[in-house]
Amino acid sequence: MNGRPISGASAHARKRGRRRGANTLFAAASGATLLLVTACGGGSDSGDGDGGKGKADDNKPSQAVVTIAPKDGADAVATSGALKISAAKGKLSEVTVKDPKGKTVPGKIVAGGAKWTPERHLAAGTKYKVHAIAKDSEGRTSAKDSAFTTLVPKNTFVGQFNPEDGTKVGVGMPFSVNFSRGITSPDAVEKAIEIKTDPSVPVEGHWFGNDRLDFRPEKYWKPGTKVTVKMNLDGVEGRPGVYGKQAKTITFEIGRSQVSTVDVKTKKMTVVRDGKVLKKIPVTTGKPGYETWNGQMVISERLKVTRMNGETVGYGGEYDIKDVPHAQRLSTSGTFIHGNYWGGGAFGNYNASHGCIGLRDVRGGYDKKVPSAWFFNHSMVGDVVVVKNSNDKIIAPDNGYSGWNMSWEKWKA
């Protein structure tokens, strides 16, 4: 019997020990759990807090504000001066302005990122889409999109140009544009005509009056030069309320060099091709009172046969020849270098014309061996003819393509 209580007490003690052990294990496990939770929570709240603050900043909207003028959906927008893009509380990082064909309007970000300006005018009657992005001081971006349509002009002008696209011309040929309306904003119009050459050479424009603009290099073109002209006149306001409507690219090539010099005293013309004398030809020039202009002239038109009437150049009925062969125009006022079948023995001996340069020919111009036919067949538009030792003055620069008689300084001015 004495052994039972002892056994009972031992059993009870063992039970109580198991309960204490379980409670201790539970408390330890709970402590571990609490420690784990505390450790996880402490990871987000501990330290200096930069990580959390940075993430919060990343989610903040950009402070940069993009402004686009004209407003979205605007119509009848001016082609110059109306498009303005700016950024406040930040800097512009990207600006794209495109027309319906996807062609991008050239422009640049200026004023340290505060503004974007187009490099040229916009086309008329065209819808443009604008996409602009700016960044604030923290590098966060803000974007804005807009669209607008430019005005449709009621009054327009065009430029008739020479030489034609795809032609080959002589070294003296300028690129000349005659406008259908007088231009009162010459800088805007001239800026809209872009000329590039291969090989590269500086080309400058010069206005003759308000309706003609010629472009040329300082000296005659180098043979083989390729010239590309972009006439971006569409949308240019040439005069108040009058807009250009051309967007055209013209290319032409400079052929071999040919400069022919007419000496009025010796009555001979020396034809020089690429620096070498090709031929010397007897000529007749303007008789006293009708002297031929001095100076550099350029062949601008070639006619196998034409009519020459004194009344068209202010000489009344002094002559009317219906079949002048091998005629090549040198001036707007009516100076030609042409075939002459009625001159008799004048060629190389005396001057008998009314200001033109005559070369011996036959009526009908059928003989290819006569000097006039030879010269005609060896010439092209843009070739240079220089007249010297005449008693007349130098031809005016705007009379034909005679701008080579101006110094480079005056031409640029």
Automatic annotation (TrEMBL):
PROSITE patterns: LD_TPASE. Gene3D superfamilies: 2.60.40.3710, 2.60.40.3780, L,D-transpeptidase catalytic domain-like. Keywords: Acyltransferase, Cell membrane, Cell shape, Cell wall biogenesis/degradation, Lipoprotein, Membrane, Palmitate, Peptidoglycan synthesis, Signal, Transferase. Transmembrane segments: none annotated. This is L,D-TPase catalytic domain-containing protein. Pathway: Cell wall biogenesis; peptidoglycan biosynthesis; Glycan biosynthesis. The keyword Cytoplasm does not apply. One of its GO terms (cellular component) is extracellular region. It comes from the Bacteria. GO terms for molecular function: acyltransferase activity; peptidoglycan L,D-transpeptidase activity. The active site is at 338 (proton donor/acceptor), 356 (nucleophile). It comes from Streptomyces alboflavus.
